[in-house]
Design brief:
The protein contains 13 helices and 9 strands. By secondary structure, the chain is α/β, with parallel strands linked by helices.
Length: 338
Amino acid sequence: MVWTPLHAKIHRTIRSRHLFERNQRLLIAVSGGQDSLCLIKLLLDLQSKWEWYLGIAHCDHRWRSDSEANANHVENLAKTWDISFYLETANKPINSEAAARDWRYQALSAIAQANNYQYIVTGHTASDRAETLLYNLIRGTGADGLQALTWQRPLTTGIVLVRPLLEITRIQTAQFCQELKLPMWEDSTNQDLQYARNRIRQELIPYLQNNFNPQVESALAQTAELLQAEVEYLEKAAQELRDEALGMGHWAWGIGHEEDSLTSLLPLRLNRRVLQKAPLALQRRVMRQVLQQILTDAPSFEHIEKLTALIIAPNRSQTDPFPGGAIAQVEGDWICLK
């Protein structure tokens, strides 16, 4: 085994960020491209130090004529490395990036649950992080969207999604694969400029590198890293403020409890006196957290703003109906959602 600077870097990252523990079962998502090949090779080489059990999962979206050959290529790699292999094939071709991503995470979660893997590991890089920041910035987002690719997050109960390569650029993964002569599978859809992310990758990033900052990918990835810590802090502070405004106990089950329906949450009351003492940033986050629980879709900026405006609005002020029919109204010191 060749021990490269990349091996040392990932070993340190896993240890310092506590991404994995020893003796864990890791399911590696492998497309066959340079990033996922770099990832699986690094984890294979580190396996003896950490005593992991590794498995490879491949998701065939059926949106390319060579997708079956691609899946066979990854399966042969798994056999060569003597690693368990799992394949999930879409029932019908998936042509939307968002739909493909959702289906892929559902498929990976099902494989992990069925085979007792604690972690799903993907090869997202600093380059992906930079592209995601730009993509969300262009569409319009707050700090949460700009830091969307995080080091780890829970996918389902007992299964955590981990991205160990977020400090490694795509140039570095390509160089690693070339030096170790890893058989990369070229995905033709990565060159298709009908996809916004590909235009960012093929056109916008190179333009920024040539005209503004040759290290723009790393710079943007570092910005996302800074924002991640700030978002975590703000979300925790907003949850504490929300609980105080609700008089505690209303939402003892906390954010993210998806089983509760709109009717079981409403009516609820938020204390305006409590919210008025807080900075605008926290007020908005509280309102977003509230709306996330009573709306079926993610709340828009307009939804959050019109609810936040009630914090200082005259008595009896009210909003027009939110999607689903809920209305917010000022009743003295309270904002009542019903």
